[in-house]
Amino acid sequence: MITEHLEPAPTTHTRLERRARSSAINISANVLLAIGGVLVCENTNAIAPIQQPTIFTGASSSSARMTKDTVSPKEDVEQIFRQLTTVEDLANFLREHCTHRNAEGVHDFISTFRCRPEELQNNEWTGPCNTFAEFTAQWAYRHGGTPYLVSLYPKGTLSKLDQSWHQFAVNKLPNGHYIIFDNTSIYLWKQSLAEYIAKDHPNRTMMPIGGLVKWQLLKDTWRARFSNHLAPNETELECAPLPFNKTQSQPPPQLAEQEVQENLTTRS
Fold first, then answer.
1. Domains of the chain
2. pLDDT tens across 138-186, in order?
3. What is the 3-state secondary structure (H, E, C) of 178-244?
4. Beta strands 212-214 and 126-127, pairing class
């Protein structure tokens, strides 16, 4: 004889408990969705594009040109950008007032990554490679260039964990040559960008993601700084001229091709 087992009908108390659990689950899901929506909105705002800085014209910097030899590192950063009217002026400023240092650990790297020039100035113009890449790239943009940021990491898996990474800025000229802003030095490079990396940074290679990105002024948030590099590398650089000192018949020594060939060394 088969006896059918019948569960007792749910009591009013049991039904109320089930409804309460169901309501709690719905409330939790709604709360999570709301939190997620806020985070997405907050992140979108944190990385949203902003207005780009003013591009100087010959007329807007003509008065500054008269005082370019007396540019003080303590002046307002806007005035420093305006008064450094040529590549040679910028090279002199970097050589006389700026000091490169290596990033000291992950925290230092993140806190200084692509920081604004004002922060570099507050640190007495001393900082790691990415601070100078940001400074020189913005200078190039404001004087009519189309700068890009190049990010390198060490070759090999384990090397990426215990060896320094590197970043510099580059502007391709209409004649196909490059102006390379690497730490506190500026080079005129007549070969390919890959050849420059192989010669000056033989132990590093360009990152496959975010290794070559067009420079733009970002919101001053760490999320904007890093999310800008979460993109495939540019495949072809736009060309744009930069202002040189027209009173000289050839680039000064720090920009001359032979100087580049003789003085490029592997940097740690």
1. 69-263 (3.10.620)
2. 999 999 999 999 999 999 888 887 788 899 999 999 999 999 999 999 9
3. EEEEECCEEEEECCCHHHHHHHHCCCEEECCECCEEECCCCCCCHHHHHHCCCCECCCCCCECCCCC
4. unpaired
121 close to 130: Cβ distance less than 8 angstroms: no
Helix (H) or strand (E) holding 33: helix 12-47
Amino acid type, 63: S
pLDDT in tens, 211-261: 999 999 999 888 888 899 998 999 999 999 999 986 554 454 444 444 433
Cα 92 → chain centroid: 23
Type and span of the H or E element at 122: helix 117-122
CB atoms within 10 A of CB 251: 19
How many Å apart are CA 219 and CA 224, to the nearest integer? 6
Residues 6+ apart with CB under 8 A from 121: 73, 74, 77
Q: Which residues pair with 182 in a beta bridge?
A: 185
**95 pLDDT higher than 90:** yes
| Band (59; pLDDT cuts 50, 70, 90) | low
Supply φ then ψ for residue 35, to 5 degrees: -65, -45
